[in-house]
Write a structure and sequence with these properties.
Strand content: under 5%
Radius of gyration: 20 Å
Largest sheet: none
Distance between the termini: 33 Å
Number of strands: 0
Structural class: mainly alpha
Shape: globular
Order of helices and strands: HHHHHHHHHHHHHHHHHHHHH
Length: 390
């Protein structure tokens, strides 16, 4: 669970955006239509127990751009200024703030999101807020908490398949493949989220072709419902699963299919850069990463750019990317978050510097995240510490 860990949260946002876009197209913007569109993607796409409040927030979402976190935050803040106790808006604001955290790398957005999700629950326990809390916990590598939240939400509304998928993802984060498979077995439907979860389980087991096949099935389900964003998302995941097993040739057709659906997708461009790296075009890959960084700086992109620049014999460029990556990871750690630990460990290991800190970060990360990537970081750090000094 390296590349597409925490992917379900992004898929949820895409699905709800598609649902709201389809309700906009009807001209009425009604909550019922937004819920119906969400159900078409799979009941996980924003579905919840029917209530006037949930229908209202789904309809209101049709009035704003769901794929723009900044605008979504502003929209829900304005709505809450008029109705401070509107608990569905508090939950939706929390999800928008989580997306802002992902977009900006600023951990303060996570604190805000947690506050608003908790406020929604304090007014009235609801599936929407529980789901927001589960997404927050998973993103922050608090996987045990995410499992518990998913199970609570599923007990309230079992038909929501995205909750089962989120639980699969969290169980994999804990290294619990058996529990993940058990969660998958409880799916009430064979929809996009079921297929995507099968892909996550196969990827966690190192089965690149099996994962790609499952993600491709998810793409087919999204295509059948004309949800292009989810179709592309799943195709990129299929390519990523194969790139994780160093099978760039097999990944290429999935990347090409995804590019036909929109080549400007950020996640797609990142995977294309990795394909370039694996096929020996490191200079092109580095330029692609730097273009992404220019648009939105992220420590993980900086880490990859530092590694590529080092391989290309550009030490000054590598040093600049390394410093930016380390500062970005440290910013999250200083805010009390644990999710930067693994990235920091790999950054230091790849540069061959501050190995005691790399080992400490890897071992601390393993206390909360126990998938193959986390275990590998510990193995590499311990081996590096044991190697004779050069």
């Amino acid at each position: 669970m390296r590349r597409d860990a925490l992917a379900l949260g992004a898929a949820l946002a895409l699905a709800l955006g598609a649902a709201c876009s389809r309700s906009r197209g009807s001209g009425s913007g009604s909550g019922a239509e937004a819920q119906a569109a969400a159900a078409a993607v799979g009941s996980g796409a924003g579905a919840q127990a029917p209530s006037p409040a949930s229908a209202s927030v789904a309809g209101d979402a049709a009035a704003t751009e769901r794929t723009d976190p900044e605008r979504r935050v502003a929209f829900y803040e304005a709505k809450l200024a008029a109705s401070p106790r509107h608990y569905p808006s508090l939950a939706s604001l929390a999800v928008a703030e989580l997306d802002r955290a992902k977009e900006t790398g600023d951990p303060s957005w996570l604190a805000r999101a947690r506050t608003h999700a908790a406020a929604s629950m304090a007014i009235q326990a609801n599936v929407q807020a529980l789901k927001a809390q589960a997404q927050l916990a998973s993103y922050a590598h608090r996987f045990a908490e995410a499992v518990e939240l998913c199970q609570r939400a599923r007990a309230i509304y079992p038909p929501d398949t995205s909750l089962a998928a989120l639980e699969v993802e969290a169980q994999l984060g804990l290294g619990e493949a058996t529990a993940a498979a058990a969660a998958l077995a409880t799916f009430p439907a064979d929809d996009f989220y079921a297929a995507f979860a099968r892909g996550l389980i196969a990827a966690a087991a190192g089965d690149g072709p099996g994962a790609a096949a499952a993600f491709a099935r998810a793409a087919e389900r999204a295509a059948a419902e004309r949800v292009v964003a989810l179709q592309r998302f799943a195709l990129v995941s299929a390519a990523g699963a194969l790139l994780d097993t160093d099978d760039a040739d097999a990944a290429a057709p999935y990347l090409e299919q995804a590019e036909r659906l929109g080549a400007d997708d950020r996640r797609l461009r990142l995977h294309r850069a990795e394909w370039q790296e694996q096929t020996g075009h490191r200079g092109e890959a580095l330029r692609a990463l730097e273009a992404l960084i220019a648009e939105r700086d992220e420590p993980e992109l900086r880490r990859r750019a530092a590694r590529l620049a080092r391989q290309e014999g550009r030490p000054e460029v590598a040093a600049a990317h390394f410093a930016a990556a380390r500062a970005g990871y440290q910013r999250g750690l200083d805010a009390g978050e644990r999710y930067p630990l693994e990235g920091l460990a790999y950054l230091l290991l790849e540069a061959g510097v501050d190995l005691p800190r790399a080992r400490a970060a890897a071992e601390q990360n393993l206390e909360h995240k126990r998938d193959a990537s986390a275990r590998r970081a510990v193995e590499l750090a311990r081996a590096a510490m044991a190697a004779p000094a050069r």
